[in-house]
Design a protein that fits this description.
Elements lengths: L1 H7 L2 E5 L2 E4 H32 L6 H24 L4 H35 L7 E4 L2 E8 L3 E6 L4 E5 H6 L3 E2 L7 E9 L5 H11 L13 E7 L4 E9 L5 H18 L20
Antiparallel strand pairs: 1-2, 3-4, 3-7, 4-5, 5-6, 8-10, 9-10
Helix pairs in contact: 2-3, 3-4, 6-7
Length: 280
């Protein structure tokens, strides 16, 4: 027993009033092991409570647990520092001095971290949401403290600083949990029966499993173009992730119906007049 006590009291580092013994290392290990076990239990409990409520979006528990993790680890770090006999005010002064020297270099980092905390607390963006950033659409796979991870339709993973999500124009296609309106445009030849065109466009989305009937699809006669009469079919759908597939299916159907009913889709035409000068 005395031998074990000697091992635990053995000082690995000794600088002035500060010393680090084997017992200190063991204490640090016990603290962080206990924190890890505690967080595992908290995570399981929160996920169970949220799933029991029903209607909870995927990733909600993960966001809450992540916030708790940051808080607990910070508190555990302070407890560990205090248990080692280190004056916390000295640590604070050190980081204050370091902050002055690296303020500009770390400004962007702190902005991203604060933005991550805002996202996790406000929950305007959650795991599973579909975002559009710089004309790229991606599914939110993970929200970290500094960055968020999105997976595009092409299977590419994008890592985006959280400050961009907070400060820049970002479209959240799934924020309202409801249908979103999209459109498909088409031009038909001059002289076509416009009422027939309207009927066929509406028929192209009739009974489509991904198109909402409330609100109902609607057709607009948008303009008289240079080479065509311009129509727009607007429809509502909850299918935002694979919307390009849905639009493609609608265009195939429109093309089929137009062919069956002799409705022409014209291509741009230009009349060229050649003036020949006759020598007198």
């Amino acid at each position: 027993m005395k031998y074990l006590e000697q091992i635990l009291n053995f000082k690995l580092i000794e600088l002035g009033n500060f010393s680090l013994s084997v017992s200190n290392i063991v204490l640090i290990g016990i603290i962080f092991l206990g924190v890890k076990i505690l967080l595992k239990g908290v995570e399981a409990l929160i996920n169970k409570r949220l799933s029991d409520k029903g209607g909870v979006k995927e990733g909600q528990g993960r966001s809450i647990v992540q916030i708790i993790k940051y808080i607990v680890y910070i508190l555990a770090s302070f407890v560990t520092i205090k248990s080692l006999g280190i004056d916390i005010t000295i640590i604070g002064a050190f980081f204050a001095t370091l902050g002055l020297g690296l303020g500009f270099a770390l400004q962007e980092l702190f902005r991203d971290v604060i933005s991550g905390i805002v996202i996790l607390f406000e929950r305007n963006v959650k795991v599973g949401d579909i975002l559009e950033v710089d004309n790229l659409v991606g599914n939110v796979k993970e929200i970290r403290l500094r960055t968020s991870v999105l997976r595009t339709r092409d299977g590419i993973y994008m890592v985006i600083p959280n400050s961009r999500i907070i400060n820049e124009k970002v479209i959240n296609w799934t924020a309202n949990n409801k249908s979103t309106r999209f459109s498909v445009s088409v031009g038909v030849a001059y002289g076509s029966d416009v009422e027939k065109v309207k009927e066929l466009l509406l028929k192209s989305v009739e009974n489509h499993e991904k198109i909402s009937t409330r609100p109902a699809p609607i057709v607009f006669f948008n303009d008289f173009g240079d080479s065509a009469l311009l129509f727009e079919l607007r429809f509502w759908t909850v299918e935002t992730w694979a919307i390009e597939v849905t639009k493609s299916e609608i265009r195939f159907k429109i093309n089929q119906l137009f062919r069956e009913n002799n409705i022409q889709i014209p291509f741009p035409q230009r009349d060229v007049h050649v003036i020949q000068k006759i020598n007198e």
